[in-house]
Amino acid sequence: VRNATAVFVINLSCSDLLFCCFNLPLAASTFWNRAWTHGDVLCELFPLVRYGLLAVSLFTILAITINRYVMIVHPRIYPRIYRRKYLALMIAGSWMLSFGALIPTWSGVWGYFGLDIPIGSCSILKDANGNSPKEFLFIVAFALPCIFIVICYARIFYIVRKAAVQSHGGVDARKDSIRFMDSTSIGSGGQGTEPVENGQMVPETEINGNEEQDSDTYSVHETRAENYASQSNVNNNTSNASMLYRGRMTVRDKRLLKMILVIFSAFLICYLPITITKIFKEVTEIHGFNISGYLLIYMTTCINPIIYAVMSSEYRRAYWGLIMCHKQQNSA
Fold first, then answer.
1. pLDDT band (50, 70, 90) for residue 109
2. Residue 285 pLDDT class (50, 70, 90 cuts)
3. Burial, 179: exposed, middle or buried (Cβ in 10 Å; 0-12, 13-18, 19+)?
4. CA neighbours within 13 Å on the CB side: how many for 66?
5. Keywords, A to Z (predicted)?
6. Within 10 Å of residue 277's Cβ, how many Cβ atoms?
7. Which positions ≥6 away from 187 have C-beta within 8 Å?
């Protein structure tokens, strides 16, 4: 794993995989039989895992967005925040917070997990006192993360736009970055100061004309900043960011930011209908809306790999390598 974003994407993929392996078969069986037939224990585990994994996914998307925000808006503090030990704490925290918030419901103190007869599926029900944590979970594990994500993206676009205007399209900034890096003599033994591709900047037309080359193309100042980070004993740094310029993004950064934004938009579209039905009971009387909400949440676990493949050449190569490996093993 090369950077923090990859760690978060792996965590998001694990959450989707667990949902597919546990919740999807039980949900398919319930739809097929038109009744819950799997006993009380699974009836309690089913909503616990579903709500918990929902929160893990959204907190992970929030973590990726904050990661991009810090990298672009505060690049100098990025290496200090996204070290490997801190990444482990962030991942563990997303799981502990998501499932820890459901412990009172699991123990029956604040609502309980059981069969919701009107909808024919297991969910969070009100306890004997009429209390339910659904509104609280909606605010803490859905609404607030979504608001923070929107704020981060708005701030990122503002800073990037401002930096682009100030640098007149980025040309002057690139030239200044080359002079700055040459004057600081980054590297050891003189090798770190060798310019990329014999000191020639990759032409913008060449970058735009070759999509596959985009994902592997770095600007001079970004490449040297990475060398500086690795050769300055920043052993636990997981940054691929430039630590020099606020608001600067490479073509690769822009494409990654767009991909995360699409993932968040797809998540929001898929989970918002079912979330509304869980909070406002009168909406469940609209059977078409209720059914479409369930279908969307089951689709969201399968749509992320498609987004990865469509928007990232790196993921396309990884998928192709995985497929080719299986083909070679089968032929052997």
1. very high
2. low
3. exposed
4. 16
5. Cell membrane, G-protein coupled receptor, Membrane, Receptor, Transducer, Transmembrane, Transmembrane helix
6. 22
7. 193, 194, 224, 227, 228, 231
168: helix, coil or strand?
coil
Half-sphere exposure (Cβ direction) of 231: Cα atoms closer than 13 Å: 15
* pLDDT tens digits for range 38-86: 999 999 999 999 999 989 998 999 999 999 899 888 888 999 999 999 9
In whole angstroms, what is the distance from residue 264 CA to residue 57 CA?
A: 10
Whole-angstrom distance, CA of residue 96 vs CA of residue 52: 9
| Top mean-pLDDT range of 216-225, 240-249, 321-330 | 321-330
Q: Counting Cβ atoms within 10 Å, is residue 154 exposed (0-12), middle (13-18) or buried (19+)?
A: exposed
Average pLDDT value for the chain: 74
CA distance 126 to 67: 37
* Domains by residue range for the chain, with CATH: 4-167+245-324 (1.20.1070.10)
Question: Distance from first CA to last CA of the chain, Å, rounded?
Answer: 29
Separation CA 220–CA 91 (nearest Å): 32
Q: How many other C-beta atoms are found inside a 10 Å radius of the C-beta of residue 43?
A: 20
- What is the distance between the alpha carbons of residues 148 and 62, in angstroms, rounded to a whole number? 7
Find the mean pLDDT for residues 289-311: 77
CB–CB of 231/188 below 8 Å?
yes
**pLDDT single digits (tens) 9-49:** 899 989 989 998 999 899 889 888 888 999 999 999 999 99
DSSP β-bridge partners for residue 114: 123
Distance, in Å, from the CA atom of 282 to the CA atom of 296, rounded to the nearest integer, reads 20
Residue 227's CB: how many other CB atoms inside 10 A? 18
Radius of gyration of the chain (CA): 24
CA distances from residue 84 to 234, 237, 239, 305 in whole angstroms, order as listed: 11, 7, 10, 25
Residue 101 token pair: 């918030």
